[in-house]
Every structure is written in C-alpha cells, then in structure tokens.
Specification:
heterotrimer; A alpha/beta (346); B mainly alpha (343); C alpha/beta (253); A: alpha/beta; Rossmann fold; 2 domains; 6-stranded mixed β-sheet; 43% helix; B: mainly alpha; ABC transporter involved in vitamin B12 uptake, BtuC; 73% helix; globular
Chain lengths: 346, 343, 253
Amino acid sequence: MRASTTSMAGVVAVAGVASLLLAACGSSNSSSTVAASSGSGSAAAASCNGKKIAFVMGAESDPFFQAMKVGATDETAKQGAELIWQGDPKEYSPATQIPVVDQVLAQKPDGLVLIPTDPDALQPEVVKAVAAGVVVANVDTHVTDQSQVLTFITGDNADGGAKAADAIATGIGYKDGTKYKVVVGLTSETATTNVARLEGFKAAVAAKYPGIEIVDVAYSQSKPEVANTNVNNWLTKYPDLNGIFAIDGTNGQGAAAALQAKGLTGKVALVGYDAYPDNVKLIKTGVFTALIAQDPATEARQAVDALCTKLSGADTSGIQKAVVIPNVVLDKNTTDADLTKYTYVA
Amino acid sequence: MATTDVKQPSSPVTQVVAPTSRLKSALANQQLLLLIVWLVMVLGFSLKSPIFFSVDVAGNIFADWGPLVLIALGELIVVISAGIDLSVGANVGFSGVIAAFAMKALTTAGVASTPTLLIGVLVCVVVGSLIGLINALLINYAKLVPFIATLVTLGAASGMSLVLTKGAPIMGGPAGGIMLSVPWIGPFSKPVLVVIVVVAVMWAFLHKARFGRYTYAIGSNAFAARAAGIDVKRHIVKIYMLSGFLAGLAGFFFYLRLGGGAPTSGYGMELDAIAAVVIGGAALAGGVGRVSGTVLGALILTTVTSGLIIVGVDPSWKRVVVAVLIAVAATLQALRKSEGGAS
Amino acid sequence: MTERGDVIYEVRNLCKRYGAVVALDDASMKLHAGEVVGLVGDNGAGKSTLVKCLSGAHQPTSGQILLDGVEREWSSPHDAIQAGVETLYQDSGLAPHLSVSANVFLGREELKPGILGKMGFLAQKSMDTRAHMDLDRVGIAVPASGRSVAQLSGGQRQAVAIGRAVAWASRVIILDEPTNHLGARQAGEVLHVIQRAKEQGLGVIFISHTLPHVLQVTDRVVVLRLGRVVKDAPTSDFDVDSLLGTITGLITD
C-alpha cells in the first residue's frame, strides 16, 4: 500500500475539475521519458539495452512516487533501458489510471511496472499487457490475481507500525511496570494503510510494551489543521501524555506544530511516518523522536532489476514472487547520508 | 386634497400584516437561540468532563474558531447576495502554500522574521482576493452561476496547490511563526484577536454601511437593485474579492498554526463555512443573514469539535451533530418565512 | 383637467431590433409636464420595448430621445434616473428583505457626515425620517419605515414602489402595470397617487392592460400595435369598446 493514499483520495473530487482545467494548458497526464544515459551504468550491468520499461501509478505528484521515480530513473539508466513514467498527476483512482495504462501499452513497452490503484479494476489491464507480450511487475500495491505478475515488491505497513511502537518505547524510555499514555493520529477510519499500521502498532505494544496504553485515536481527514486540533485537545485532556504516533505526513505536521507551540518538544515522544523533507529536518531539532520511512526507490530498483533479468533471458530463478522491503527508522542517531538517502524528493 | 383621505385605505391593510405571533418573535431572535444552544453545550461538556471548562480548552476552541469564522463571514456576504462560494476552502490551502513558498524563500535569503511574516500575510490576502476576482469575472462575464464558477476555482486552486507542492507541506519559513498562535490574553492568541477586530469591521460594513445595503439588495432582488441604479456587477466583484481576501487571511492563520503551508489545508472547509452561515440563520436564497449569527454558528461548530475530543466521543459524531443543527436552523428559517417575516 | 405644460419627454422615430425581429418600428410620442399618457397595446405590441428604451434599460437601434427638448442617450437605467426619469417595473421594483426606507433610498443612500460617510456608513435615522415624509408627501401612509417590505401587503408594496418613484422623479415617471394584482381599493389608491404626481407637474406614462384604469386616470392614450404607434388621441375620444377595438386592430382610422 502506498504512503498517503487517503490524502490523495481526499482530493479526488476536486482534482477532477483541476485536471480538466490543466488539460487546457497542456497534457493532463504527467509524463516524462527519460532517455538511457550510457555513462551511469557499467557495460556489464546493462542487460536491458534498448528495452522500454514503463511505470504507471496514480497521483504521480505524491512525494512517495517522486522518491520512487529517483530509483526507477537511476536503475533504468544503469541497465541501459528507456524509462516511461506516467500517471495522473493527482488522482489516485482506477478511472483515471486505466486510460493511462492503455496509452502506455500503445507505446509498446517491453516491461511494465504497474502500481494498481485498485486490485480488481486494473486486473484486465495486466491480462491485456501480458497478452501483448509485456512483462508485468507490481510495486507497492498489487492486482488480485498474481499468477501473471513476475514479482510484487512492497513496503510493509504492519512492520512500520511495529517499528513505530519500538521507536515510541525508546523515546519515552519505556520501563516495565510503569504506565504510559499514547495517542494515535490517523487520517481516516477506512484507509487500509492506516489500518495496517495501526494494527502493527497495537500488536507490538500488546506483545512488548504492556505498560503503554493507547488512550485515544482520532482522524484528520487529510487536513493538517484538524490533526493539529486533535493533538491540541489531547494535550489538554492528558496533561501526562507520553507519546504520539502520527500515522502519516499530515498527522505528523499537525502534531509537530502542536508540540512546538505548547513547548512540549522532546517532552512528548512523537513518531511520524514518511520521510517528507521538512519532517526529516525536524528530527534534528528533536520535534520528531523518529520517522518511519518507506523505501520507494529501492522498490523501484528491484522491480526494474527483476524485469531486466527476465527480458534479457537470464536465469529467473532468483526472482521472488513477493518481496517485502522493510521500513527504515530515521532518528537522531541516523547518519546524515542515510537521512539524505531516505528522504523523499519533492 | 388632505393627506388623511388617502391614509384611510392603507390602515386596515396594515393591521392584517402586523406581527402578532409570539412564536415569530421568538424565532426571529436566532442569535439568542444560538447563544442558548452554545451555553447548553458548554454546560453539558463541562459536566461530563470538568477539564473542558478551562482556559486551555477555550484556547483550542478559539484557535479553530479564528480561521473558520473568517471564511464563514466571507461565505455570509456571498450567501446574502444570493450566491455561494465553494472555493474558500481551496483558497485557504492555495494562498497558504503560495505564502509558504514566499516566506521560505525570504527566510532562506536571510530576511528577518517580522518583515517575512508581513509579506506572508500580504501574499495570502492578495492571492485570496485574486481567486475571488476570478470568481466574480466568471460570474459576471462568463455568465456562470456562482456554484459552477466557484467550483471551477475550487478545483483549480486545490489542484495547483498539489502540483506546486507535490503533495508535501512547505515549511522552512520564519522560526517564530508557530509561537504567534499561542494564547496571549486568556484563551486568545494574537491572530485570534485580529480575527475579533475583523469580525467587528465586517459587522459594521454589513449592517451599518452602504456595502451591506447593496449586498442585501442584490440578494433580495437583483433586478430591483439594478433598476435602482446600483452597479451590480461591480458589487459582485467586491463581494467575491472580500470573500477571497478573508479566505487568504484564514490561510495565513493556518500557516501560523502549522508553521508551514499544506496543500490539503482547508480542504472541504467550505462546507463548514456554509454550515456556520446556515446555522447562524442565513438563507441560501439570499437577502437574509447576520454577522452575529455566523459568529455564533462558527463558535458552536468548533465547540463541538473540541468537546467531543475532550469528552472522548468519536469525533466523527461531529458530522451528525452538525447535520442536526443545520436541519434545525433550516427548519426555523422556513417557519420564519411562512410566518411572513424577513431577517 | 390640469393645464398641459411644455413638452417634457419625447421620442422621435424610435426603432429597436433584436436580431431580425423588429420590436419597435418608427415610434414617436410626446409627453407634457402635468400630463398622464396611457400606453396600451396587445402583448408583443412593443410596450415593454418602448418602456425599456424610455427608462434606459435598453438602447434603441435608431431614433431620438429628448428630455426637455435636449437629445439624450441613456446607457443604463442609472443615467435616466440621474436625469429625473423614474421607472416602476411591474412586480419587481422592491427588495423584499430591506426596510421601507432602505427601499425608498436604494441606490441613493444618504451617508453620515464626515469620515464615517466617506467610509460608506449610512445615515439610517435621517433616511427613516425622510422616507416617511416623502411617502407622506405623495399621499402614501406606511406604518413604519423601518419595517421590511416582505411584511407589507401587496397593495402597500406597490404604494411604496410608486411612492419611491414619485418622490425621486423630478421630470418623468413611467409606471409599468402598477395596478396589476391589486384589489379595487388598492388600485384606487394607486390611481390617486398618479393624480398627485400629475398635480406636482410630473409627466406620467401609465402602462396598463386594465382599460377602465387607463380611461380613468389618463389625459391622452397612445396605442401600439406590432411595434407601431397606431393611435395618439385625447382620452375623451375613447370608451372601453373603442379603445379595445383600436388595440386589437378591429377599428382603424
């Protein structure tokens, strides 16, 4: 599942109108073709010379995908392939994604990395692609029937939730026998990323940190100011609050502002999700105890790698059907190099 | 010819329409009803959770009330003119984002905090007003109905916010921004005090000045307003620009609270603004509405938000509570109309 | 019958086309000070078009409009109002949510003296008092000028609308169906107000389908048919039957 599905889904209604307007000024699809750069990869690794590899996602402008694009651009260049990168700029919906897939297939790519916005709605597109001789991989999200898909590479939200629990425990100096109060700021009751992260978080707390009580959860509906209001009221309601798990970037921004305004930076442990550049900076100042970062660039690299292996006719026995890329915990002990590496580009 | 002769025929007619109903006079005082509703809410939340009755919670409520009442007042004047402005929420996000870019650039260039914030607020209101101007031009010259015109700018502004920010918040402005939104006198932060001044000014201009008179006239009967020599198009421009200006100001308010601009800020807030206006007794058909009602409507909405969190009820119940309030307010409006009275 | 004064308002050879449709074809008429002219005709005869040209709402395709002998061009109703030509449109002259005095002063608000006035603040008390006086002067008694128009009866509203037009008109007043939807007593009141306006030396153009009212209140009748003036004669020349005949074209000269 993708980083901020819900924040994007939240603006789908308005984005529809926006893309109509944008269409007047140019293409409504954000599209770019990155030519292979011969200098960046070694000749030996260039197993994909002259091949075309396409990535199709929803909500292309999301920093998560921008970070993924870095990995995709880098790896296709290394492998000597041409990258087709296409997706609706804002909308995370099958209605806008299916026509984009069709358009991409018309360009006759050799490999397709599909990040489906819906597991069922995009299934026929996979069938169509495979019938046309295109090798398909899934990244981040997957279609329902995986039999025709070469590999599925994703981050692990439940694992991210568990890591957040560890980070909070570290942040509050957890000791057995002491009681701690923690709240969780979510975006919506139904977002699957939110649900998976919260479940992972709860499971880890129950298993490892019985002293931590999750006293409240609330929803921000994708709006940082609502997340901010929630945290402001929690800080009033629980003067002895120990920690906050902000489940995505929006909740992170709202919670960070609330802690700074109330002078509680460092006094209440704040663990956020997703390595948006401005949030990463707040690790240094101690506002965020830790950030759980996904690694979309690595997901993209592995997908390109698997496709190239298959396309070059090499041994494919090393390609796993499902790959889970672990999340990375960024905190004050993380090296600057790693911070830079995992920060999503905006 | 004596005047008394002609007076005679009109006096019996007068008696027929004289307001006699007690119900009517009670209904007419929407402000009093709202005040009672609000006090009952405060009492209820405080009984359930004593910590609710604190300066701290009041501070949280007013921090939410500030930006909401700004855009609700803009919505109010538009609604009184028989229009609607759906773009205010998107305007909040867009103006905040543009100002955030500007303030980030200025801060990076080493400009001090105060001038940076002043330029920021200027950028917010200019961008906000420009969106309002576009609304007015679409209505006046492209002949779009306000609903469609402002739906267009809603989509364009929120879409542009996402395109420009690529979905991420824009921070890196002046360091002291967030601290300005901390309560200063009692529960009131400096921005909230500014909002209170804006409310007073809006009250004066809507209820005591020609600007308001024209606004009500256009909403009540645009044909009559035009026939009376009022430049309706020009006034429509003023109304929507003022609404946009206030949305821009709300965008800056959020910037201060969050220490940055976020593309999703204000998303859907137009519905909260319309709710505050309707709960406050305004009629979407135009010609009716008071600043005091809208101010109380916004206060009730934000009190519900904080109250439900403090008491520990799922905040999603807020939508249900708001829905009930809107239904009651709209019913009162309809009753008042059938009683034959106005505003 | 009052003495006829000088010609106050005049149109010469007025034409108005909407695309291929000729709504007004070479229409000419004169209005004297202290005179009430009835303007009658079937639906589509060109009455509304002529009224709109006279009030500045529309601009004629060709022809002249003269006020006090001087040729004028109205680019908007505002121009005509400024020059002393008031128009009362049927049914839609008032803003129901505004008070009586706000309606009387609509578009001509009196502002507070000094800096407050410069900022657009209204001299409400003074307007309330003056509205009451002005309506009184033209013979309309409205209970309280602070009451909203929506609270008035249909007859009272019409009286306020006419009262406003008469109070502000300095030269000409154009009344488009002012007795529509009114009971006999209320219509009588309206006709009385027209009489008062005439006594003040205003020129009055009275448009109505109710022929007895036309015969009762006017000095002269102008009949329009298919965009042309087909008859312009003293009211005393007509009775209801002959007027109806002229309007429908059954009687021609």
